[in-house]
């Protein structure tokens, strides 16, 4: 069964680092945009980052620029989100997702530019607290 499996979250002190992973199981990431999203209870979903395997475009939310780095290992079919300089406001459930298959693999507005989400991970909790 095709799915995304995300992992790597945890509890970290302010200023610390984490690396999240998003592995594609059962399908190739070719011609996909893969986004990372953050969900906090009571708040709207926030688009954190996105990478397109179609054109290599990358998106970062203003709140994470210069601190988070998205990358892809095509051989491992895995997308990573390296997070440094973590702040308490980075706390939330992070999950990865793709655009709906067959629709444009775009990242110019992160996942907000997609007509619909295709595959989605189950989420990994990141808590930044002292």
Sheet with most strands: 7 strands, mixed
| Proportion of residues in helical segments | under 10%
State the order of secondary-structure elements, H for helix, E for strand.
EEEEEEEEEEEE
Note the overall shape: globular
Global Rg: 14 Å
Q: Between the first and last Cα atoms, what is the distance in angstroms?
A: 39 Å
- Total helices: the number is 0
Unreliable spans = none
Q: Tell me the number of strands.
A: 12
What integer is the average pLDDT? Answer: 95
Estimated structural class: mainly beta
Short description:
With 130 residues, this protein is an all-beta fold.
Textual characterization of the structure:
The protein is an all-beta fold and 130 residues long. The chain is built from no helices and twelve strands. Strands 2, 4, 5, 6, 9, 11 and 12 form a seven-stranded mixed sheet that branches. It has a four-stranded antiparallel sheet with strand order 1-3-8-7, with no helix packed on it. It is globular and about 45 Å long. The termini are far apart. The model has no long low-confidence stretch (mean pLDDT 95).
